[in-house]
Structures are given as structure tokens and as C-alpha cells.
Amino acid sequence: MPEGPEVQTVVNGLQACITGRRIAGVTFAGGAESMVETGADSLKAAVAGQTVAGVTRRGKYVDIVLESGMHVLLHLMMTGRLVFRDSQAAPPLDPPRFLRFVLAFDGGAELCLGDQRKWAKLVMLPAAEVARYAGIRRLGVDVLTDDFTFERFKALLDSRARLHSFLLDQARLSGLGNIYVNEALFHARLHPLRTPASLSEAEAGALFHAIYDVVRAAVAQRGTTFSDFWSPDGAPGGYQYKLQVFQREGEPCLCCGTPIARIKLGNRSAFYCPQDQPAPPDAGSPENPANSQRT
Ligand SMILES: [Zn+2]
Questions:
Q1: How many angstroms separate the alpha carbon of residue 186 from the centre of ligand 1?
Q2: pLDDT at 154 over 90
Q3: Which residues belong to the active site?
Q4: Helix, strand, coil fractions of the chain, as percent rounded to 5
Q5: Structural domains of the chain, ranges and CATH numbers in brackets
Q6: With 50 as the cut, is the pLDDT of residue 237 above it?
């Protein structure tokens, strides 16, 4: 699933591509009308003829702001992919596979949404209701904004959850998914089974800086591309070449050579270097981590 940095990459691309363009119309394909939580017909009626005033990010939602003040929120979920097709470009990009939704602009350019599973979600809301929308209202401090300060981070650390699940909890910190949680813990040299409440001041500082740096480096690299994420202009992300631990089980740690380990925590995998990220005394065995289900 795209994480905060991937969505920010999409937003950065869209800002450049569609801001100021006038929407000619909307079409759906493959029964994708059901992806619009607030009704496909009202979305069609509200966006036709509108100019895009700007594009921002709210958590993992892309927020397309129209001149009228309406907001079109888009969540790509697991397999959604956006492709911007500029009729002026030669040659224009191919439309994505499993095409579901097309925002057509005057002059022939198109923003296409492909989604194999039709899990992507569209919501249209007036400005006053955006902050109250359930998917946004419950979001914690966004790690890619200026709201993410060491003071605010420290105030969250009273939890006895395991660090891995604590950092994935979007109600506390928003924007981190499993890739960047694993990478940040490695950069901070903290084992995924440590608890926030057990961190020393220095460890909390190291973790704050690791999160801060990892997500910003990922945005600078245009995110991490595996199989299902491409930025709007079709250029792949480059952060996969920077990954230290994520999906590197059994491969040597790039710092010390120790094989990277993996443990299952709930339904997610945590990847770490057993040498650089020492286990806490209550961690249990690697195969059977103590309290791994606790969040
Ligand atoms: Zn190591």
C-alpha cells in the first residue's frame, strides 16, 4: 500500500500536472461507480466544468480541491494507480491496466485511475466537512508536516505497545506504513519489540530523527516502487534502492553483515538486524515473540 511518502509523491506530481486545468468530464469503467462513497452521479455533476484549484495530501488521501470549494478525496488503497496522460506529450503514456475512473480535462489530457481490486475510494465533500470526515478526523500527527515535532512525538510515548505496531497506528502518527516503520527502527537502532515507554531520551530523539529523515528521503526519491505504485507521470520511485531491512530477510545487514531477521507481529512482518537492534529482555524467542498480538 502506498504510504505517506508515496502519496506525497503522487500529490507533488498532480500539483504540477492538473492544477489550473478545467475538467471536461468524468467517466467510470468496470462498475467503478461503487468506489464513490458519496455517489458517482453527484461527483460527475459537481466536477464537470470545474477548474482544479490545487492538490494536497491528507494522511493517505489525495485531496483535489476544485474552484467551487468542493474537495475530491481519493485513497489508492492497496492496488490503485494513477496515470496522467498528456495529449501534448509524445508519446502519451498508456492508460493503467484495470482502468476504473478517468478525469478528462479540456484539451484532451486525462487523469486515469487503474485498480485491479476496485478497493480505491473516492469521496466528494464541501470544504467545511473535510476535516470531519472519518478517514481524516482520526489521523494523528502527520510525520511529513511541520506538526511533527520532537515535543509532540515525545508526548505520544507513554504507550506500552510494541514500537512496530505503535508506529503503524495512524491515530497516533499518520503517514508511516510497514516499509518506513521498519526502516526508521533500523536507522534508530531500535528493536521492533521495544516499547515507546521504555525509550531513553536519547533513543526517543534517535527515533524521531530517523522517522523525520526516512520519510523525507523517501519523498526526495519519489517513494518506493514495488509492483503497484507509479507516480502520475509514470516515473518509478527510487527509495527501494535505499532500503536497509525491509523485505531483506536473510540478506546481510549493510552495516554489520549479520543476516536480517523477520518476525511476524499480528499480520505484519517486522524486519531488523539482530546485531544492530538488540532485543529487549522480554522479547521472547524470535519464532515466538512475547505478546506479539498486543497493540
Ligand atoms: Zn547490522
A1: 9
A2: yes
A3: 2-3, 60, 268
A4: 30, 25, 45
A5: 4-137 (3.20.190.10), 141-289 (1.10.8.50)
A6: yes
